Fold this protein.
Amino acid sequence: MAGKAPTSSQDFRHALLQHLTYTMGKDPEHAQFFDWRMALSHAVRDRIVDHWVASTRKTYEQDGKRVYYLSMEFLIGRLLEDGIVNLGLAEEAKEALDSFGQDYRTILMDEPDAALGNGGLGRLAACFLDSLSTIGCPAYGYGIRYENGLFKQSFVDGRQVEAAETWLQEPHPWEFERPEVRFTLGFGGDVISENGKTIWKPSELIQAEAFDTPIVGWQGRWANTLRLWAGRAVDPFDLGLFNSGDFAAASEHEALARSISRVLYPEDSNEAGKELRLKQEYFFSAASIRDILRRFDSKHDDIRLLPTKVAIQSNDTHPAIAGPELLRILHDERGLSFEEAFDITHHCMNYTNHTLLPEALERWDERLFGRLLPRHLQIIDRIDDAHYKAHPHRTLSARSDGQVKMGELSFMVSNRVNGVSALHTDLMKKTVFKELNALHPERIVNETNGVTPRRWLHSCNPKLSSLITETIGDEWVADLEQLKKLEPAIEEAGWLERFTQVKTDNKAALCDYVSKAHGINLNPEAMFDIQIKRMHEYKRQHLNILETIAHWLEIKDNPSADWVPRVKLFAGKAAQGYYFAKDIIRLINDFAKVANADVDTRDVLQVVFLPNYNVTLAERLIPAADLSEQISTAGKEASGTGNMKFALNGALTIGTLDGANVEIREQVGADNFFLFGMLADEVMQRRMMHDHAQQAINADPRLARALDALRSGRFSPEDPGRYTHIADNLTWSDYFLVCSDFTDYWRAQREVDQVYTEPQKWAKMAALNVARSGWFSSDRTIRGYMCDIWEAKSLIP
Ligand code: BZD
């Protein structure tokens, strides 16, 4: 049956049994969850492959423009349910498993979560893959097949402990190894001149081998490819060394080559400056460029047509070396003039910026860069020279102060540069790319992020999805703006009650999970207030916990008052070397221990930090949220995408005017959003005051009391000084203006409490958030890229 698409439950049952028997070599009597999951995955995969082959064939036939999305990260999570849902096979799969006495959910949950990304940037890439396939835009995702994805997080005495992630330990059913697609890449060595030609002679060679994963869109109308590269040695095994008894040295080349695709570097890691990271960036960018050219060459003789067939998107600057690499091949290897090579490269390349934080803008020491990529450093100098000739008064360059600046380089090489929310794009023009924008005012465009409704509503929230489909039909899944049609229903008798019931059921399901997985019983009647994201000072998880501490102290003053019960949930990972962020995790855990044990307060306030945040945990938490915490310092969060997922699932946002919060508030209406805090320009002004934090502390006794509680050691009696440095940091430096925003945050939180006591009002606001979040579909974002940046077309008729 393999390769033939099963249609009915009967067919599907047969396909399942075939794979269990012939792919897994198991008898149903003895099959484990793993065997059933693999058999199911293969049955679904066969069906996907049919669409995949048809799409690939059509792409070759039509020979239109292809989009290449280069990203160091694809945070794809689990794929089985995605495949089943997109193909509309859920009923068939359930029935087939049922008939063998297997539980569908349990089998789905057996799949490891592919965490090939750190956070928003990687998850955005995964949502984009889903939308590209749903829209039918011929596209390839290119990245690295990390053997170890983002670390697993656990807590020991409240502290984050990291362990290696091992998603590839079990066979991965979704990928196809392509041993025939291999490219040899070089590092180091010399650049020489021969007969007037410049030739790079690398001293170290490595191979990149392709692994393909089909990505099927909604209703299987199109499927694209995610191609991930794995490092391989050119000569994997030295028989001479082995025979001489040096077994370890005999395989050393292979071990070294594999290390290039071994680990995902964590965001903000102090280690990120290491040579291996730069090697990873060149490795996957160079392999992808070769693959793109090979595909182009198979159909075309005239390289000048490249920009009509190829649009390359660099997801942040991590793949920025792809530009100089393409230029090098066109100029050095194919003999085009530098100017022509640059022109072609420029018309193929585009760059998305995801941060304005100066410390996060990628820069490389020019000595390291020149040692690994000597020819590319020369090419970057020529790009600078050419830019200088065209714009003699400019002061910026891609290489200066002993560094190679990947943001500036990307800007100069790219045809279009985009920000990820309206505010962020505006700030990009005013700050980091001010000078370059003045020279190239047409280059920067905005494409506000979005999320795929298939995963982030249809799959993760089946009850809300059913209610929506019953109310307005099912076209919303591929056309999310249709959610607007819910608005009249919200006014109808009984609808809001059903909507509220869905939330109640989702909260009960989360309580059940937390109880089973962690032995903690949450109060299902309470408001579920959730902050889930990477741990970072600018995201201000410490503002949240400080306000929670202040609130707890007030409850303790008067335990019998009429408090609105809350469950505060946190989840998120801190980079291994980011000690302040790790201390905030520990503080939340330490405080939770004290507060959750306090008989005076525990009925109205519970605090839980759930370990090992990943895509799967987000899928459980978001449908159960009442309140979404989006409280970054204005001007610092480029967009956010979690904020969109929460609104789409009927949570209300408490947030600053930062990133895409601005557009969420515009869409859902100011009345349906709890706004607080300074605006981006007020933040900049306020920071100029040397004593901004002390002024804020002096003006707000609640804040002063919370900071005193930190200093007193109340939450860490065994080590009273543990959090003094956090209190000191906030008092004396407070770069992210936690203290200055505290009072208004407190005010907004009390407004939240007030509205929560009026269930009708709350439910209506939440329902309006769902109805008005259609614009945040990544389908809309991808259509924007196709039109404004790539000039690409859908091949679905
Ligand atoms: O990108 C995030 C931004 O912080 C979010 O505001 C935004 O919504 C998303 C998507 O545009 N940035 C990241 O996730 N960045 C990283 O993960 C990262 C990874 C490696 C190195 C540097 C940053």
Q: What stands out?
A: The pocket of BZD is lined by residues 118-121, 124, 267, 354-355, 360, 420, 449, 637-641, 659 (CB under 6 Å). The longest strand covers residues 204-216. The domain at 453-681+737-774 is CATH 3.40.50.2000 (Rossmann fold).
